[in-house]
Amino acid sequence: MDLLLVEKTLIGLFLAIVIATVVSKLRGKKFKLPPGPIPVPIFGNWLQVGDDLNHRNLTDYAKKFGDILLLRMGQRNLVVVSSPDLAKEVLHTQGVEFGSRTRNVVFDIFTGKGQDMVFTVYGEHWRKMRRIMTVPFFTNKVVQQYRHGWEAEAAAVVEDVKKNPESATNGIVLRRRLQLMMYNNMYRIMFDKRFESEDDPLFVKLRALNGERSRLAQSFEYNYGDFIPILRPFLKGYLKICKEVKDKRLQLFKDYFVDERKKLASTKPMDNDGLKCAIDHILEAQQKGEINEDNVLYIVENINVAAIETTLWSIEWGIAELVNHPKIQKKLRAEIDTVLGVGVPITEPDTHKLPYLQAVIKETLRLRMAIPLLVPHMNLHDAKLGSYDIPAESKILVNAWWLANNPSHWKKPEEFRPERFLEEESKVEANGNDFRYLPFGVGRRSCPGIILALPILGITLGRLVQNFEMLPPPGQSKLDTTEKGGQFSLHILKHSTIVLKPRSV
Ligand code: HEM
């Protein structure tokens, strides 16, 4: 560790000249850069700021330097945006200028340098990929085609929990079972496939590789090599592991899912649109020559990371808040009982008739935003934001969590109070109609998965609350809601044990 530090410092010295040249070049251009801590040569602000650029630390910087600030992380410029007006500028008014994505050294590996959709720059490739993905994934038709499947998956969770005697006594780590449910919800859409149990060997392999991918990508431990290129050789081992995980994962998607589906399609030609699953549409686009085989695999990769864990984290946060706020849980149960009748299992169309359920979901996404900094945006060219110059290829982080938790804009934002969305904030939707509340972003690069995520959240939380009283485990009055942030993700640190007492109806 010490050796690494000495090496970092020594090599860093050589970089002084490079940085000095860059800085003088920028000055030569007479850039008016956003405020921020004073950088030192080579390292910029990295040594002051550290690695953990989570939404709370970035909020502290915003309080100090303002709604737009610049952090120089070695060679990388990082612009943090913390007001609704500036968020509107980045995501809407100048949505094209700021509509690209940055990738660091690790995301370059996992996305094949942007051959995917989520991490590619704004342009032809992105437009094509987003268009190709829309019909198979992001329409109301998809919701109507698969909602029965999601309802069945939620019912299976309820059954399994009821079968396990531990659930009502010492409690269980419900997340594990919900993870299987989320994989099934998405794999039904993608491949018309589901996994029978948490021990299914293919599911075990898939879950492990996806888990590794998320951990490696969201970790802060590779920052030094990303920020300071000359230190990159020290990242060789880390990047090699990333590459191995990436290769294994794409191979698994290909061998066990994509090729399986191709085989099935060749033996049983599908003449009816209704029988098509998402990959059939994507393969059709490949056959037409619109995209190549790698693009197909990267689409599968994107859905695996963008859809499953994000929704699962939100479900997990929702449950934790309901356990820690028993009155809210009771009120939600009462709403469902009154509107649907006791014992009538909630379905997707029902979720629209339950305003308190919607408010609970919105409040969960406000306080516990799964992607609190959105997925990083980037400007390909020099740009202006507020009254400042933003150098080309800056990483733009919109602190969406702070927009939704700033006491200047929200009444007691630290409280979990769904009522706010029925009272003073009753016009605020999750789709970005208010720039203070952007859990799915807004504009060109906003989350297309919102159309699936909201009903899945409603069905899952609804079914759990209908069937169980959810409580902390014996001897504990509250669940631990310590957060764990990553490069741009936020989830609960400890997957809690929860007691689920079946309701006697
Ligand atoms: C509660 C669950 C979810 C949350 C909170 C969430 C949130 C987000 C956010 C904040 C972004 C970035 C917006 C921006 O950069 O401006 C995003 C992008 C994206 N999300 Fe989601 N998401 C969720 C579920 C899903 C699901 C279920 C899918 C797919 C089925 C999905 C697919 C995507 C894709 C493909 C992008 C990239 C869009 C682009 O770059 O053009 N998400 N999501």
UniProtKB/TrEMBL annotation:
Entry's transmembrane regions: none
InterPro entries: Cyt_P450, Cyt_P450_CS, Cyt_P450_E_grp-I, Cyt_P450_sf
Chief place where the protein resides: membrane
Database matches in SUPFAM superfamilies: Cytochrome P450
Annotated keywords: Heme, Iron, Metal-binding, Monooxygenase, Oxidoreductase
An example Gene Ontology biological process: lignin metabolic process
Family: Belongs to the cytochrome P450 family.
Protein name per its UniProtKB record: trans-cinnamate 4-monooxygenase
Named cofactor requirement(s): heme
Catalysed reactions, semicolon-separated: (E)-cinnamate + reduced [NADPH--hemoprotein reductase] + O2 = (E)-4-coumarate + oxidized [NADPH--hemoprotein reductase] + H2O + H(+)
